[in-house]
Every structure is written in structure tokens, then in C-alpha cells.
Amino acid sequence: MSEAIQGFEDVKPMVFAGIYPVDTEDFEELRYSMEKLQLNDASLTWEPESSAALGFGFRCGFLGMLHMEIIQERLEREFNMTVITTVPNVSYLAYKTSGEVVTVNNPSDLPDPGRIDYIEEPYIKASIITKSEFIGPVMTLCIEKRGQIMNQNYLTADRVELIFEMPLGEVVFDFYDRLKSISKGYASFDYHLRRYERI
What range defines the domain where residue 193 resides? Predict the structure, then answer.
């Protein structure tokens, strides 16, 4: 059995959203289209999900808002699929008074409020490498997104690594695009899920 070369990681999605066919009968056709798209875009991740309002669809991970728009556009142009894309979000954990833990991907998954003990949201350890001239704007952005600075390392005279802990929910919508904008493209972003923390 062949093994992957050490040192390479899967591309991490930065934005998560649901994609549903306008006509529920087109679900299998949408699945086929997503499989074809993934052949030449390995950064696209998806898994089946269902919604009470929208029926069967897919929970997808994208590199950013632009990537999400491109995938939606390609589905329409290349596969003639008209789709509904939900607002980007993350999964939360709802702890019920009975002790049961429910994964909440969208508001319809939320248990009856009277039966919820507490809710936890995912926190990440974020690593941002940027030019030293952009430290101020990058730190301001991260703090605005409820981030807490954990470490700051100068890699070279003009390149710095900033380590933050922040809620994943603050990152999924427009964080990556804003980071690229304020750093004029000179910022890289990587993250690892750290823990779930009580809201």
C-alpha cells in the first residue's frame, strides 16, 4: 500500500455553507455535479445534509467567500444547476438537560430551549504570518473577531507569526477575505480546532 509523502496537509476550508438544489428531485444530479467539480478542485469539501425547509443538500467547505461564489457560478454554468446557498456558519454543541449532546449545524437542529442546559462553540488556534508593517491592522481584525493573542514570533526582520485563539464562528464569514485585504495579500492563515467552549 502506498503512503502519502510526509509534510503535506489537506487544504482547510475557511467558509462553510449549505448548497441545495432548487428542485429537490435534482439532488442526485447535484451530487454528481459536486463529484465532478471536486475532481479539478481538491479544496472543495462537502458532505450530505438535510434541512426541513430546503430538503436534501450538501454542507460544503470553501477557501473563502470568492471560492464559494465561483463554485456556485460553476454549478450554474457548467452543470446547468440552479442552487440555493445558505449563509456561512459553523457547528455548535448543544448539551441537553438529559445529558444528551446534539450537534447543531443550523438553527432547525437546535433542541427545545427549555431542554438545553448550555451550548458550546468551537475555538481554533489560528496562525497568521504576515509582514511586520501589517501587525497593527491584523491584530485589530483578530481582536474585533473575539480573538486573544497567544504568541508573536518574528521569523525574519520583516515577517512575523501571530498566534491567536478565536471562535471559529467569527472566522467563517468574511475573516479570510478581510485579512487578505488589509495585508494587501501578504498574509497566510492556518488554523487547528482547539476545543469547544461554553457560550
Answer: 121-198
State how far the Cα of 199 lies from the Cα of 11, in Å rounded to an integer.
28
In this structure, how many other beta carbons lie within 10 angstroms of the beta carbon of residue 186? 14
- Tens digit of each residue's pLDDT (9 = 90 or more) over 14-51: 678 889 999 888 999 999 999 999 888 888 888 898 87
Residue 36's nearest CA partner among 86, 79, 83, 84 is 79
pTM (global) more than 0.85: no
Alpha carbon 143 to its chain centroid, in Å, reads 19
> Does residue 90 lie in a domain region?
no
Mark which of 85, 105, 134 sits at the end of a domain: 85
Quick check: 24 and 76 in contact, CB under 8 A?
A: no
